[in-house]
Amino acid sequence: MVFAAVLLAGATVACGGGAGSDSANEDSSKVTPATAVAKAAANSEDIRSLHYRITGTVPDKGRLEAEASMSTDPLAMSMKMTAADQDRDRRLEVRFVDEVMYVAGTAVDSEKLGGKRWFRADPAAWGRGAVDNNSHGVLPRQLEGNPVAQSTLLTGSEDPRMIGTETVDGTRTRHYRGTVTSGGLLAAREGAVDEASRERLIESLDQFMGLGVSDTLTMDLWIDGDNRAKQFRMRAEPDDKQTGTGGGPLDLTITFLDINQPLSIKTPPIKDSTALTNGTQGS
């Protein structure tokens, strides 16, 4: 199901910044790429809230850019997304609170809102598994996944390597790259040394399946001096068997701006929202 008047597209691709100093990463030469990536994945479990930025392209939707905040307990998300390269203003604001989705913005047909600002739809789910997510067609499936879990995908790579040190959003980082396949994630899961690692890889595999891409994903991961993911980039061709239409590559860069800062995602006033009905959805 989709909102009939909602169109998603447009944004610019953002990669890591310029060269940074090695001082914040002085021990990087003593740590293998696989170990560094595994440490960053383990540290992701401590993330309770996140403010992040997304830029790039998704199959069938084209270019987009977004800024979002999320919390893990309770699971909630707020995102503002802008379509680029369009002949008119197409902005979208989406919130997921208490398994209800709220949508507003210039990309929504105001005539169908009945004087209200927000559409609401339930049940709705974001940040879960590939099968459980449900944004009623508003979000590209690649944005339905939890970016914290997506950042751990490189743990399934059989060829992680260090590219160098770079500065990302003012933070000095170590830049790693590798290819990820579903088979690699399965093999890594079977070879996991502890239950926590195994559970992370199960979640990573689920996130991989939710991307709707071909079997090979190229992933870049920038890790800061605290051994946390600062930024990651995912590139792959679409899986035409899943999408049915193709429509260009996946190339998304997600930058973590703030971690574990106080966050409150509020439900829009009920008097300012109207329920999504058969008359306001289409294909």
Q: How many strands appear in the DSSP assignment?
A: 14
Q: What general outline do the C-alpha atoms trace?
A: globular
CATH fold-level assignment: outer membrane lipoprotein receptor (LolB), chain A
The biggest sheet, with number of strands, parallel, antiparallel or mixed sense and barrel status, is: 12 strands, mixed
The helix/strand series, from N terminus to C terminus, equals: EHEEEEEEHEEHHEEHEEE
Mean pLDDT: 84
Q: Helix coverage percent of residues?
A: 10-25%
Number of domains: 1
Indicate the radius of gyration in whole angstroms: 19 Å
Oligomer kind:
single chain
Q: Give the amount of beta strand, in percent.
A: 25-35%
CATH architecture classification name: Clam
CATH class: Mainly Beta
Low-confidence stretches: 1-24, 278-283
What structural class is derived from the secondary structure elements?
alpha+beta
Q: Strands of the biggest beta sheet: in what spatial order?
A: 8-9-10-11-12-2-3-4-5-6-7-13
Number of helix segments? 5
For the termini, the CA-CA separation is 6 Å
What does this structure look like?
The chain has a single domain, classed as Clam (outer membrane lipoprotein receptor (LolB), chain A), CATH 2.50.20. Helix content is 16%, strand content 35%. The chain is built from five helices and 14 strands. It has a twelve-stranded mixed beta sheet with strand order 8-9-10-11-12-2-3-4-5-6-7-13. Strands 1-14 form a two-stranded antiparallel sheet. The N and C termini lie close together (6 Å). The relative contact order is 0.23. Residues 1-24 and 278-283 have low confidence and may be disordered.
